[in-house]
Design brief:
The structure holds 2 protein chains of 2 kinds. Chain A is of the alpha+beta class. Chain A has helices at residues 2-19, 44-77, 93-122, 250-263, 273-277, and strands at residues 129-136, 139-143, 151-154, 176-179, 183-190, 195-199, 204-208, 214-219, 224-229, 242-248. In chain A, helix 1 (2-19) packs antiparallel against helix 2 (44-77) and helix 2 runs antiparallel to helix 3. Classes of the chains: A alpha+beta, B mainly alpha. The complex binds protoporphyrin IX containing FE and copper (II) ion (2 copies).
Amino acid sequence: MSLLNRMTLLAMMIIAMLGAGEPALAGLGQPSPWQLGLQESASPVMTDIIWFHDFLLYIITAIAGFVLALLIVVMVRFNARANPIPWRTTHNTLIEIAWTIIPIMILMFIAVPSFKLLFLQLNVPAADLTVKATGKQWYWSYSYPDNGEFEFDSLMLKDGERKEGQPRLLAVDNEMVVPVNKIVHVITTGSDVIHSFAVPSFGIKIDAVPGRINETWFTATKEGIYYGQCSELCGKDHAFMPIAVRVVSEQAFSAWIEDAKKKYARNEGLPSTAVASAQRLPQ
Amino acid sequence: MDTIAKAHGEDQHDHPHGWRRYLYSTNHKDIGTMYLAFALLGGLVGGVLSIGMRLELMHPGLQFFHDSHMFNVFTTAHGLIMIFFMVMPAMIGGFGNWMVPLMIGAPDMAFPRMNNISFWLLPASFTLLIISLFVEGEPGAPGVAAGWTIYAPLSTTGHPGPAVDFAILSLHLAGASSILGAINFITTIFNMRAPGMTMHKMPLFVWSQLVTVFLILLAMPVLAGAITMLLTDRNFGTTFFTPSGGGDPLLFQHLFWFFGHPEVYILIVPGFGMVSQIVATFARKPVFGYLGMAYAMVAIGGIGFVVWAHHMYTVGMSTAVQAYFVVATMVIAVPTGVKIFSWVATMWGGSLEFKTPMLWAIGFIFLFTVGGVTGVVLANAGVDRSLQDTYYVVAHFHYVLSLGAVFTIFAGWYYWFPKMSGYMYSEPIGKLHFWLTFIGVNIVFFPQHFLGLSGMPRRIADYPDAFAGWNLVSSIGSYISGVGALVFFFGVAHAFMRKQRAGDNPWGAGATTLEWTLPSPPPFHQYNELPLIK
Ligand code: HEM
Ligand SMILES: [Cu+2]
Ligand SMILES: [Cu+2]
C-alpha cells in the first residue's frame, strides 16, 4: 500500500499547512517572508475579515479533511483485495437527502457572519476626512477635497532612491497621509484604465474605474506606514504602482496638511484635466 | 484496422486516405483524434508559457523579461490557450466526439460536415492568436497584455496596436467553432440514441456533454457580443465601454463574466462525466445516485448563469447586489457537494482497482474538493475584498482547473487510450506520470494560497521581496510537473512503439458502457446495425 502511505503523508502535510492559519509571521502594513495568512490588522474591518477568514478556514479544513478521510477509508476497505465482490447498492434516499441538507445548513451558518462583515464594509459611516485617489498609468495621485485645492503624485521609488529599510516595490516618494483613529473616506477613480486601490492591513480594495467614483472607508488604529499594491491589471507597469499610507497623530496630520497646501499648490487654479474628466458620478 | 473491421463482417465504405482522410474528414473518431492532437499541441504551448512565467517569478527582480509587458503577454496567452485550445478541444471536441456517438449507439455525429468545420476553425483561430503575439499591442510593444479577461479600457485605449483585434477575431472563430459543435452534440444526443436508450439510461459522460454544450450555446454568443462591441469601440468610434461617450467599462465586465462563469463550468463538467464513468468502472459498481448525479450537473449549469458578478465584488456594486451574488454563489456548492459524495458512495462497497485512470480520478476528487472549498471562501464578498486579484484566486482556479479539469483529461486519456488506439499504455509509466504531476502541481499551487492571503497581487512580473520564499517553492513545483509532462509524452510514444494489443475491453466487468462492446480501435463505421438497449 505504498500508494496509500504516500497519499496519507501528503494529505497530512496539506492539512497541517491549512491548519496553520494563525500565522506567527503576519506582517503589519506589509508582507513578511514565508507569511502564511492575512496581514495583521490595523482597522476594525480588517479585524473582522481576519476573524471571518479563520472561521471559514476551520470549516473548509474540516470539509476537505472529511472528504480525504472518506477517500482513505474507501481505498483501504474497498480495494479489490479487501473486498473482492462489489456490493450492488446504487441508492439510499436518506443519505442523499442528508448530503444535500447538511451542506445547506453549513452555508447558512457561514452566511450570517458573512453578511455582518459585508454590511460593516459597505455601510459607510460619516467621514472625518476624505481622500481622493486617482489611478493613473502608472502611479497614484492624491487630493484632499475637504482640505484645499492641492493634489500630488505618488510614484514608486526605484533602486538607488530608497532609504535604508524601505521595501522594494512598495516604498513611494510621496505617501498618502492620514490621521490615526479617524474615519477616512477614500474615493477612487481611474484616469486612463481601471486600477484598484488596496491596502491589505486596512482590509480595503476598491477599483478605480474611469468615469466612475467609487468609495470605501477605513479607520487606522495604529500609527505607522501601510503598503498596498495596485490590484487590477493596468498595463506595462502595473507591478510598479504601489500604495503607501502613512498614519500619523492628529497634530502631525494638521502640520502635514499645512505643509502640503504650500508644497503641492497648483500653479494654475484649475483642476487637472484627468481629475475633471473623471467627475461623472455613477448614479 | 481494416482487418478488424472486416473480421466483424462490416462493409468498409470507401474513404479518403492520407492527408485527405483528415482534412476532409467527416468521421467523428478521426475528428476526435484531430481535436486530441490539437489539444496536445495547445497544452504544450500553454505549458511552455507557464514554465516561462515560473522561471521569471522564481526570484524577486526581473530575470528574463525586460518589462512586465511581455510577462503579461505570457499570462494572457497562457490563459486563452489553456482554455480555448487545450481544455475545451480535449474534453468536448476530443473525448466528446469520440465517445458520445459510441456511448449512445450512434453511427456518427448528426452533422458530420459541420463537425469538420468545427474542428478546422480551431487551427485558424489559433493562428490568429499566435499572430497577435507579434503585432503591436500596448504602445510600442507586441502582443496582448490585458489578461484573458481583456477588460476595457485596457484592451481598447490601453492597447492601440492591432494585437487585440487579432485576439478578438481568434476568439470569434473559437467561439463559432464551439457553437457549431454544441449544435451538433445537442442534435446527436436528442435524436440519435439507439433504440431503448432513454435520456435516463444515458451514461453520465453523455449527460455531462449535453449540459456542457448547452452552456456553450447560451454563453458563447454573449462573449461574441461583448468582444464585437470591443472591436467596434476600438475601430469604428463606438463608445460602449467609454465613459466620455456615455459608455461604461463595467458593462464589459458584466458581459464578460456572464460568459466567463458558465465558461469555467464548460471546462469542468465534461470532467465530471469522465470521472463518473471511471470511478464506476474501477469500483466495478454502478454509479451511486445516477439521477442525482445527472440533475446535479443540470443544476450546476443553470445556477452557473446567475452568479457572474462574484468576479466583480470590488468594482463598487451596491450592498444588495453583492449580498445576492454571495447567496447565489454559495448555492452552487450544494450540487457540487452532491457530486463529490456520490463519487465516494460509488466507491463505497466497491472492489477498487488502482489502475492509472483511477489514480487520476481519485486525485481529482480530493483536489477538486480543495478548490471547491476555497471557492466558498471567495464567494463571501466580505473576505473576497482581501483576496480579489491576489494569488489566492490563482490558487483557487488552478485547483479546480489544473488539478481538476486537467486531472480528468488525463484520467480520460488513460481510460480511453486503449479503446482509441488499440494499444495498452504502460502502467508504470502512467503511474509515474500521475505521481510526478500530483506532487508537482500541489507544490506549485498550494503555496499560492499563502501568497494570496499575504497580499501578493496576480499578473505581476516582479514582487516585493517578502514574497520570495513561496514563489521559489512554487517555481520548483512547476519544474516537477514539467518533468511529469515529459513522462506523459514519453508514455504515449512508448505505447505506440510497444504496440501491445488492448483487446475490446481491458477493464473487465466494471466497464459497462457501449464503447467497450466494440473492437479496439473501433471500426471506421460502427453500429451498422443499431444496438438494442434493454
Ligand atoms: C464550489 C464552487 C465554486 C465557487 C463557490 C467558486 C467561486 C469563485 C469566486 C467567488 C471567484 C472570484 C474570485 C475573485 O476573483 O475574487 C472565482 C474565480 C474563479 N473560479 Fe471559481 N468557484 C467555484 C468553482 C469553480 C470551478 C469548478 C471552476 C472551473 C473549473 C472555477 C474556476 C474559476 C476561475 C477560472 C476563476 C478566476 C477567473 C479570473 O479571474 O481569471 N471555479 N470562483
Ligand atoms: Cu494596476
Ligand atoms: Cu465564477
